[in-house]
Hints:
The structure is a single chain. The protein is an alpha/beta fold. The protein has one domain: 3-Layer(aba) Sandwich (Rossmann fold). It contains eight helices and twelve strands. Strands 6-7-8-3-9-10 form a six-stranded mixed sheet, sandwiched between helices. Strands 2-1-4-5 form a four-stranded antiparallel sheet, with helices on one face. It is globular, with a radius of gyration of 18 Å. It starts with a strand and ends with a strand. The model has no long low-confidence stretch (mean pLDDT about 90).
Amino acid sequence: MMLDVAGIRFSYSSEETISGMSFSALPGELVSILGPNGTGKTTLLKCINRIHDPSEGVVEVDGDDVMSMRPRDVARVIGYVPQRAHVSGSTVFESVLIGRRPHMGMDVSESDIRLTGRVVDLMGLSGISDRRVNEISGGEYQLVQIARAVVQHPRVILLDEPTSNLDLSNQHLVMSTISGIAKVNGMVAVMTNHDINLALRYSDRFVLMRGGSVYAAGGREVVTPEAIRDVYGIDVSMGEVEGVPVIVPRM
């Protein structure tokens, strides 16, 4: 099992936000964490990569205990793309190169430069690699953030709402890119997602959260009208388009 999250608990002061979260994922899988606002999705990601230290639980990547790692070692194993990130005046290439920091010595090596160039090409950013990141579009900047995480060469990549505030075209571009990178590189990609239909189109596994705990986890079979009603409090109908399930809220 490449990623194993077991029994994670986390509290802000006296209020428990994450209560016994457990799920697992295999290499090449894209996992979407679904649930309403305030249910702890972002907090869960931050517990997995040790931004927050949970009070209980285990996170293992290929059997290695993430909870016992130093921050630099965690960054070598787990890449993280936050929902909101500071936009600097650096170039696209420089911004991606920052992702090599956990592997660097005192100076940037030729190997770091070459790997960054390959990832910039892979993400379709070579045409804007010399532009400042504060001058590019929102969709392009999302790809820069993903590229920065990929160049870390992690075994797991975590993404917090990677399609938020993007237009329809860029939503699908980002999702297809993440799914493709996970499969080609044998990584696990775990993302929070508010768009259930987008998640159903691209994801391999799903974790439905309710009240800081797992309501259901598994393949598409766990995303049912009953589950959506219990988790989100709305009634939906479910159909299929080109073999992909689609949900439609009932009026």
